[in-house]
Structures are given as structure tokens and as C-alpha cells.
Amino acid sequence: MTDILDQAQKLEELQRKVALENRFQAVQRPSRTHCQDCDEPIPEKRRRMINGCTRCVDCQAVYEQKKRGFRQ
């Protein structure tokens, strides 16, 4: 008979594996060439350094401030 702790450990391992797979898939997306908010070109250097970036530096800063609850 399987112990409940063994079942919990297997579930945790499965959840961790799925979370890691999802994280790696998100990182491997290609970067956008233009900002999704202002449609200005995203510099090539930024696109190379930040895999999957979707915003220019200015729009990303505004997005992060709003996410934290600040208003500009």
C-alpha cells in the first residue's frame, strides 16, 4: 500500500517538472521586433539580451511600475 507521503512527494515532483517545463518554454519565445505597447522598434541588443522581450525599455518600466501598484 502506497504511503500518503510517497503520493504527496510524487505529486510535488510532477508539479515541479511541469512548472520548470513551462518556464523554459516561456524563455525560449522569440523577442518581438516592435514594442507591443507603443509599436516603436526594440533595439537588437535588447532583443538578444532578453529572450522573449515584448516591450521597449520605457514601456517595460511603466508596465513594471503599474504591476507594483504605482501610477505615473
UniProtKB/TrEMBL annotation:
One of its GO terms (molecular function) is zinc ion binding. Transmembrane segments: none annotated. Pfam families: zf-dskA_traR. PROSITE patterns: ZF_DKSA_2. Residues 32-65 form the Zinc finger DksA/TraR C4-type domain. Keywords: Metal-binding, Zinc, Zinc-finger. Gene3D superfamilies: DksA, coiled-coil domain. A zinc finger (dksA C4-type) spans 35-59. This is DnaK suppressor protein.
